[in-house]
Amino acid sequence: MPPRRKPTSTTQKKAAQKAKRAIKRGDLPPPDPKKPVKRRHRGPPVSDAVQTSRKLQSAFVALPPEFLEKTRFLAATLPLTRPIPEQARIFSTTNFDDIDGSTLTCPRRPKWRFDMSKTEVERNEEGLFRKWLAETDQVVEAWQSPSKLDEGWLPQTDQASQSPPKEPEGGYESRYPFELLLSFHSPKSTSSEVAMPRSTTYFERNLEVWRQLWRVTEISQIILVLLDSRAPLLHYPPSLATYLSDRRVILVLTKVDISGPARADAWTRYFSVRYPGLKVVQVESYIEKETTILHQGRKQHDPHIPESFRRRLVEAIKEEHAAMLEPPEKVKANPAWLEKWKPRTKRDIDWERVMAAEGDKVGTVTGGPAAPHEDEEDEPKFLTIGLIGQPNVGKSSLLNALFGAHKVRASKTPGKTKHFQTLFWTPDVRLVDCPGLVMPNFVPLEMQVLSGILPISRVSAIPSCIHHAAELLPLEKVYKLSQPTPIDPVADKRTWRGERPGGNTVKGKPWTAMDVLTAYADAKGWVTAKAGRSDINRAGNAILRALAEGRVAWAFWPPDVDVDLTVDESAAGMGIWIPSTDGEGTSGGEESEEEGEEVKSAEELSENEQEEGPAKSEDEEDEDSEPESAQVALGAGRFGALQDIQGEDSDEEE
């Protein structure tokens, strides 16, 4: 006989039906709503190299939606200062509340012993890092507190007593009359009354990236700190100077071909006075290819360092090495200590070979995370030189220039290097390339974006960054933009409160950051897919990339320079912009027709992406960068060599 069905199923069904009826009648309370089950998509297996690369992704905080809404509105209302004050050329430390480094610090690796297990060492590091992260967040929040968001930042009317919603289809101008927007910031009002709120500052929040810095500083005997010569003080904050106070450091000014020799020499003198015990050298990392073939309308470049810069760098390293061979004063005073003292570096180094080392015979990869530990009692086999700095300062590019060949991956994307790697310069000298990480510093987000420290694709406050850049550079002159005129409403014979509506055009209307974005998007013909409005997100993305990558040349003067010495007739009112003098044009010009940038518009972004910005992978960001023509400014096309490197390493996926 077939087995009988269990009566429990029918009983359960009847009980469920009775319960539903009781709930409808109100005899029983409704059950708790079921939580949606998130089904994870199981893709192909991920390799260990990819997992390690994901662990080394830089982590930053997300900006609040209220801040994005406020800065977007102010970018459309606050007029830009024209002409730009000459004081804007000077890098002022007071603008960033630069202090002596006692409040913001870099995390130090806790002490460890060889008898400790890996779990114990990592647990100590994680505990110390959590404590440091909490303390740093408190300091940054206190620094930002004078400009905390207020609830009444929009013009209040009888109908608008609450915080406004998201931007409508017609923009802010459709919600508020243009005259009301102008009255929100009248020319008579001071900057203290209405101004952009102070944004937060970004710094590295991933422990794995800080561990790379710890390891490089431990194995390096001489450290080269690379500083972008356009704003070098931004790349050597007090937190990093304090962290490296007990190390042998050489400051290297990069990208001097963009900033120019006058500014580079002024910054060299400034650092020599401020840090008298440190050596300061200048370098260039690219040379134009001797070919008539253009790549996307631009000239191509190869990694190369001029002979004069190379010799100065080698001489500075040689002097630091010679100082390491001298015993300290307290050792010299004690004969017993002096007899047993040994230098912690290799004694004999062929410096002539270092000067001539280039080509395929150098740059052999060695070590990395599995680098062998050297016995302290024996003399080291080679001199180890570490290269550290913030993202996009040119560490990998300098290595390729020293070797005269593409040995390490260099990219215009900040933070392309994921893991430190060691390469032999000569059999006596090895170099260690450290991944770039954003150091803690009292610098607003907009300045970090302008200097190229942060990936542009991860920036969500585009209008605020463009407003900050336009206060320092005349972007409308750089790109030869025409100020957009507001669209007049359709003519209507009806009146409102006895007045006939007319056009909303204002004579002599000053430029705003949103005007710059709209004019640039209109000049390019970039519109959103749905509403057909000017794609300001794509325009802002392109402008910020050009500024960060050096296709629009700019640079600050050091704080100790007299303003009158930095001004000439041709540069009056130009701010930090360096117009081209090579006859290739002085404006942004037109880009090549082969555009590779497909930046998402605001309509195509989800709500999460609008708050945190389009989070692309860094490999995608390289492909999405927009090619500019050679007419942009001095130094245009200098990143052409990076495209060659990417092509050679296209098979290597991290």
Automatic annotation (TrEMBL):
Keywords: GTP-binding, Nucleotide-binding
Highest taxon listed in the record's lineage: Eukaryota
One Pfam family from the record: MMR_HSR1
Region of interest (Disordered), residue spans: 1-54, 149-171, 575-654
Basic and acidic residues composition-biased segments: 24-35
Function, in words: Possible regulatory or functional link with the histocompatibility cluster.
Protein name: Guanine nucleotide-binding protein-like 1
Source organism of the structure: Mycena sanguinolenta
